[in-house]
UniProtKB/TrEMBL annotation:
InterPro entries: 3-OHacyl-CoA_DH_NAD-bd (IPR006176), 3HC_DH_C (IPR006108), 6-PGluconate_DH-like_C_sf (IPR008927), ClpP/crotonase-like_dom_sf (IPR029045), Enoyl-CoA_hyd/isom_CS (IPR018376), Enoyl-CoA_hydra/iso (IPR001753), NAD(P)-bd_dom_sf (IPR036291). In the N-terminal section; belongs to the enoyl-CoA hydratase/isomerase family. Residues 473-557 form the 3-hydroxyacyl-CoA dehydrogenase C-terminal domain. It comes from Sphingomonas psychrotolerans. Its main location: other. Keywords: Fatty acid metabolism, Isomerase, Lipid degradation, Lipid metabolism, Lyase, Multifunctional enzyme, NAD, Oxidoreductase, Peroxisome. This is 3-hydroxyacyl-CoA dehydrogenase. One of its GO terms (molecular function) is isomerase activity. Pathway: Lipid metabolism; fatty acid beta-oxidation.
Length: 675
């Protein structure tokens, strides 16, 4: 087998080029090739310097994650980076694309780093539940300082080449497109100079930074093992020699990689990518060209949806029925962009650029110029059918027609047109400009190229997309239903909203079912028929307790929106218990877990059995990216696997639920949802 590493010479300089698509992951063959190159440089006196560079779209994007959990082939990455650094001839890392994880560690072990301005550096291991395991926790503090190292290693977000240069991580910026020549020129300049090894540099640190950092990020790191382990490790090794530090790093790495959190986070990494593969569709299907998007409705949802495309440089025609609503919607989009700019995440020109792509109109016929039209109107089948009937008359042939419905039957909506093959669901989550998840709903007649185009577009607008089948609530909202039903029943049986929410927050969710109701609006759905008061929620809505927006819902809120237990809610629950004559019992934490979490897994199993999700990992992606399921628990189906499906079935049986046949079958066979 040919090595992914090619060696070439330019005068005294040995060039090691890695070509291991798609991302130059540092798999065994790459490590062996790099090691051979370093050996060659060591033994050949005519070689005076080495340049390490990558072909393709990026510098090494890290260790090969698919090798994790398998027997390690020599040399390991920690051994290799030490060999690179130990060479007594200058080694220059020439970086383009992303130098991530192990890739960043190869760069840190090299004696010099040169990068094109578009390059990025990062230590994203923490996002996989591990710590930088090839000297990163030791070399980064020595090169860029302890604070920068803490920031990069615990948050995992990459920094630009410019920021890396300011931090001392990059020695020189190359000209875009001229990286190799600039790197060779750099190598020639430093030939003969004593090499500077980052592991030999001292670490200077104020011990107070660690606690300050923990305090500042406590909320962000809640429940996560890796960030805490990284801070502890850097703190404990900061004053110690490199050899000692790197040994502690190795132990910390091994501990984390064997843990459930890392397994869950790696599962989500691959699940997110697997979700883009659509069953039964050829990968090379010809995509439709989307040059302009139409959005019907300039409310919160329509505005948020529009922003996705504007931000990605795609022009949007947004339609409303009244001038005032159109103006309000347009103003909100501008306000949101300006808020982003105020935080320094957008320039004033970018704001104007995005706004310049927006065409607000009251004329429905203007949608005729669009290649994809998404309706975000009132959630009613009659209204949607009417909109699609009108679209059918004016949309150009081949335009994709999408509904943003959260629950309704896409096939019924598609039947209102003469072109059901062009219709699908694009279910965005609120706020649509922020939330990562997109459910792409595949109708019975949706054409393959329509689905594939939607999937490709989701990547362009930086969404994580999952294919769902046509069923009430699709994947996410359908699984939310049993949780909601059970949470409400438990209120009547003796639990409090706090008690139920607390279990969910302790599990790692950002909030529990009642906190979520207060945030989204207790009045959702109630306005349709305000005289019908059938449950506690309707009663709260009827009293004007609509949630956070009214400072009162299931909780009372002060002016800072801090929730507190509401005596009125306690009273109201008691009234309903009496009225419906519900027997009381002490609701335990175990009962809450079974009735609100196991029931979700049960629903997930039904969804899988019915083919409404393509695979269990897609269900996990929906919950992690759309509903705040803690990524370190890998999504409901992965979590069920780690709990053991027998335990889930036993819990459901104990509380009298009808267990999904697929779940029971898997439990009996000792199988898992995710293989
Ligand atoms: C580490 O380094 C630890 C070191 C210590 C060791 C002791 N390995 O994301 P994309 C695949 S931990 C294997 O769609 P993009 C990916 O699955 C690692 N495979 O591309 C996909 O495969 P598919 C630290 C990998 O252009 C394909 O490449 N590094 C790896 O949107 C394309 O990926 C990271 O955590 C990998 N490391 O984004 C970086 N990376 O086509 C992880 C990707 O079969 N990677 N693949 O589905 C990324 O963040 C992004 O892939 C990217 C490129 C920004 C590099």
């Amino acid at each position: 087998m040919t090595s992914p590493i090619t060696t070439t010479r330019q005068g005294d300089v040995l060039i090691l080029t890695s070509d291991n698509p798609p991302v130059n992951a540092l798999g065994a063959a790459v490590r062996q090739g790099l090691q051979a190159g370093i050996e060659e440089a060591k033994s050949d006196d005519s070689i005076k310097a080495v340049v390490i560079i990558c072909a393709g779209k990026t510098f090494f994007a890290g260790a090969d994650i698919t090798e994790f959990g398998k027997a390690m082939q020599e040399p390991s990455l920690p051994v290799l980076v030490d060999q690179i650094e130990a060479l007594d001839k200058p080694v220059i890392a020439a970086v383009h694309g992303t130098a991530l994880g192990g890739g960043c560690e190869v760069a840190l072990a090299s004696h010099y780093r040169i990068a094109v301005p578009s390059a990025k550096f990062g230590l994203p291991e923490v996002k996989l539940g591990i710590l930088p395991g090839a000297g990163g926790t030791q070399r980064m503090p020595r090169v860029a300082g302890v604070e920068a190292a803490l920031e990069m290693a615990t948050k995992g977000d990459p920094i630009s080449a410019e920021q890396a240069k300011a931090a001392g991580l990059v020695d020189r910026l190359a000209t875009e497109g001229n990286l190799l020549a600039d790197a060779v020129a750099f190598a020639q300049e430093v030939i003969g100079k004593p090499v500077s090894r980052s592991s030999e540099r001292p670490v200077t640190v104020d011990p107070a930074v660690f606690d300050a950092f923990r305090k500042a990020n406590g909320k962000r790191f809640r429940g996560l093992e890796a960030p805490a382990a990284i801070i502890d490790l850097i703190e404990q090794t900061a004053g110690k020699p490199y050899a000692e530090g790197v040994q502690a790093e190795r132990m910390g790495f091994m501990k984390l990689i064997m843990g459930t959190q890392s397994a869950a986070l790696r599962h989500i990494f691959f699940a997110e990518r697997k979700a883009t593969k659509i069953d039964g569709i050829a990968e090379d299907v010809q995509l439709r060209d989307i040059k302009r998007v139409g959005v019907i409705g300039a409310g919160t949802m329509g505005g948020g949806i529009s922003m996705n495309f504007l931000s990605a440089g795609v022009p949007v025609t947004i339609v409303e029925m009244a001038q005032e609503a159109l103006d309000r919607g347009t103003a909100t989009i501008r306000k949101n962009y300006e808020a982003t700019a105020a935080k320094g995440r957008m320039t004033a020109e970018q704001v104007e650029g995005a706004m310049g792509l927006l065409k607000p109109t009251l004329n429905f016929d203007d949608l005729a110029e669009c290649d994809l039209i998404i309706e975000a109107v009132y959630e009613s089948m009659d209204v949607k059918k009417d909109v699609f009937g009108r679209l059918d008359k004016i949309a150009r042939p081949g335009a994709i027609l999408a509904s943003n419905t959260s629950y309704l039957n896409i096939d019924e909506i598609a039947a209102a047109t003469s072109r059901p093959q062009d219709v699908l669901g694009l279910h965005f989550f609120s706020p649509a400009n922020v939330m990562k998840l997109l459910e792409i709903v595949r109708g019975a007649k949706t054409a393959d190229d329509v689905l594939a185009t939607a999937m490709a577009l989701s990547k362009k607008i930086k969404k994580v997309a999952v294919i769902a089948g046509v069923c009430y609530g699709f994947i996410g909202n359908r699984m939310l239903m049993p949780r909601q039903v059970e949470a409400n029943k438990m209120l009547l049986e003796g639990a409090t909203p706090e008690q139920i929410d607390k279990v969910h927050v302790a599990f790692g969710m950002p909030m529990g079912p009642f906190q979520m109701a207060d945030l989204a609006g207790v009045d959702i759905g109630w306005h349709r028929d305000p005289n019908r008061i059938e449950n506690i929620r309707d009663a709260l809505a009827a009293e004007g307790r609509w949630g956070q927006k009214k400072s009162a819902g299931f909780y009372d809120y002060d002016e800072k929106r801090t929730p507190s237990n509401s005596p009125r809610v306690t009273e109201l629950i008691a009234e309903w218990r009496e009225k419906l004559n519900v027997p009381q019992h002490e609701v335990t934490e175990e009962e809450i877990v079974v009735r609100t979490l196991y029931t979700m897994v049960n629903e997930g199993a039904l969804i899988l059995a019915e083919g409404m999700a393509q695979r269990a990992s897609d269900v996990d992606v929906v919950w992690v990216y759309g509903y705040g399921w803690p990524p370190y628990r890998g999504g409901p189906m992965f979590w069920a696997d780690t709990e053991g499906l027998k335990k889930i079935v036993d819990g459901l049986d104990k509380y009298g639920f009808e267990v999904a046949p697929l779940l029971r079958e898997k439990a009996e066979k000792g199988e898992k949802f995710n293989k």
